[in-house]
From TrEMBL, chains A, B:
It holds the Pfam family HGD-D. Belongs to the FldB/FldC dehydratase alpha/beta subunit family. It comes from Desulfoprunum benzoelyticum. This is Benzoyl-CoA reductase/2-hydroxyglutaryl-CoA dehydratase subunit BcrC/BadD/HgdB. The lineage of its organism: Bacteria, Pseudomonadati, Thermodesulfobacteriota, Desulfobulbia, Desulfobulbales.
């Protein structure tokens, strides 16, 4: 199915860049964001264009290491290196940044990044378990709303937020639907395809078009369960749940599938960690946003039992054969939490593999050997 | 001056352990704490005995690495290894633990430590810059106060808190006085001695006695500026400010002085980072505690400009010749912040040395070479 190859995504990217240029010429601001905790609905409700800047490439890292410790995770260094090296067209287009105090590395990196662009930090509480943390977070969204109004010159009405909540809910729903196509006995998408079909890379504007594209793609994909060749191509491949750090760099995802596995579910930002729960469309829109976003079970939260519950649900619903946890080397939150994830997975009787790596290709051979051995275990 | 040697400290430790056993036999609870953010006044006001459990020894680390990533800092691994290996008499004596969500490594480690002891986590906001963060933190202290009341069966009155605030203020004041003896042209204490004289290691009870001991010691030390032998012994030694991670392990402190420097000031937990500001004794005692503790300029805070201001004040007041920053390898917050510290120090024209190490002795030779070269630069 060549429609979901690089050419396909490249076409979308070109269109989005063109649309963004038009919108910017008409005065729209571009707001860079780094984490799943930033409610893009608020940005869009101000008539601005959100763009996710978390980075997956290796090349800006040496530049970043001139300012940042080498033992920070690749994701943080890559994002920062792109920014200071002016090597990311998306960053270049930003007028301002909205970031979240998630992990230690990011929050301290943001202090330096603020020299490059106006940067507003959402003070994320470190738990979602208390009423006080929700009130605190709601206060942060109120503060950032005022900042967005000042920066864009647009009053953000409740109706405008509600409209964006509905739109982003539709996006979440269609992405979730893509994942759900893998709950049956025949997984209908590989992890690579899930990543491509569901990805909303770059500037987030004209989401209607993107939703329509994903819907059309899923329409075709649903036919696969009548396609004997397709069924034969996935038969017997171990069904993998990939969890852990954001799969900003695809090397582990690709290795898992190149070695014969099929990644039927991803519990990560942009995957099942963030698309499962919709923002309520009735009631105070800002409160609803606050409650939904604070509930994201990122390892930067303590406690983070919701992630274990989510993993158990995915293991059951997606007929998982084995769980692979990806930690970008230097990410303490996911790395420490992996101890509990391993316990949780092993209690289900499933094998668990913990991969700690970075964006370089240096360890590809070694990873391939480990992954092959793991997949063999599942057969 | 042999009075401040190990024998001296050993005697104090023996007495404190004896007193603690007596108090425990009479029903007092022992509450372990890990960070400077935990207001010990509250614990003491409940009639319980606070004990700091941050650890400086290397030997429990391999055990900790069975559960924790190897690339966490030595301080976290040592604390955890002591706890699960039952190798720390102070931990063994604890009835419960009060911890703070400071850095990623600690907060996630505490999730596992809670299996070993009842552990209550103070949800620290990641900034002290807003009224909301202060209100949130005050709420946390209120919550922990109720927990302490339940655990100890003691109602914590405002008067009891005020009494402890006054007592701990006296301790802070006398420790600060010890530091201030190093502001003159002749530094009256080495860093080693400051560490010994001011240290309140172990169980914190009968602080009156400890304050009297420190006061007596300082009385003797003040005579040094009339002692020609002493003056000759410190003449010409470069005056070092040691900053960064807590000096739980003394290897860098000792190396600096063994190589000819004199550490006249330490900007770290228990040092000038925490003793400079007193808790106001008038007004709502819990609010006063909250405001004082949240203002500690730890690198886990963002922004943390107060630390740079403090460093500049110390450089000026303590006639500093060079600044050494200690980072326990794996501590992202201090490590990333070191970029700004270096800028800040270099703007004053002073040399800056960043030492990243762990608790092992493996790099002693290499560190010695670097430190000698740095000290030579200062002469």
């Amino acid at each position: 199915m060549t429609i979901y190859d690089d050419h396909y995504l490249g076409g979308i990217e070109e269109r989005v860049i063109r649309d963004t240029e038009t919108a910017r010429a008409a005065g729209a601001k571009v707001v860079g964001v780094y984490c799943a905790f930033t409610p893009k609905e608020l940005i869009a409700a101000a008539g601005a264009i959100p763009v996710a800047l978390c980075s997956g490439s290796d090349f800006p890292i040496p530049l970043a290491e001139q300012h940042l410790p080498r033992n920070l995770c690749a994701l943080i260094k890559s994002s920062y290196g792109h920014a200071i090296g002016d090597s990311c067209p998306y960053f270049r287009a930003t007028d301002l940044l909205i970031a979240d105090a998630t992990c230690d590395g990011k929050k301290k990196m943001f202090e330096l990044l603020g020299r490059k662009r106006p940067l507003y930090l959402l003070q994320l509480p470190q738990t979602s378990a208390t009423a006080e943390s929700h009130a605190y977070w709601l206060g942060e969204l109120r503060r950032i709303k005022v900042i967005l109004e000042e920066e864009t010159g647009t009053v953000i009405t409740d109706d405008a937020i509600r409209k964006q909540i509905r739109l982003y809910n539709r996006l979440r729903t269609i992405v979730h639907e893509a994942f759900l196509l893998n709950t049956g006995p025949i997984p209908l998408l590989s992890g690579r395809e899930l990543d491509t079909v569901t990805s909303v890379a770059g500037f987030e504007l004209n989401l209607e078009t993107r939703i329509a594209e994903i819907t059309a793609a899923l329409g075709e994909i649903k036919e696969r369960d009548k396609d004997d060749d397709y069924i034969a191509s996935v038969a017997g491949r171990p069904r993998i749940l990939l969890t852990g750090c954001p799969t900003t760099n695809r090397k582990v995802l690709h290795l898992l599938e190149d070695c014969g596995g099929i990644v039927v579910a991803m519990e990560s930002c942009g995957g099942l960690k963030t698309v499962g729960g919709l923002v309520p469309e009735q009631g105070d829109p800002l409160k609803n946003l606050a409650a939904n976003y604070l509930s994201i079970p990122c390892a930067c939260m303590t406690p983070n039992k919701a992630r274990l519950d989510l993993l158990l649900a995915i293991i059951r619903d997606y007929r998982i054969d084995g769980v692979v946890e990806l930690t970008w080397d230097g990410c303490h939150t996911y790395n420490v939490e992996s101890f509990q994830v391993e316990e949780c997975v092993q209690a289900t009787g499933l094998p668990y593999l913990h991969v700690i790596t970075d964006y370089s290709e240096n360890d590809t051979g070694q990873l391939k050997t480990r992954i092959e051995a793991f997949l063999e275990l599942l057969n």
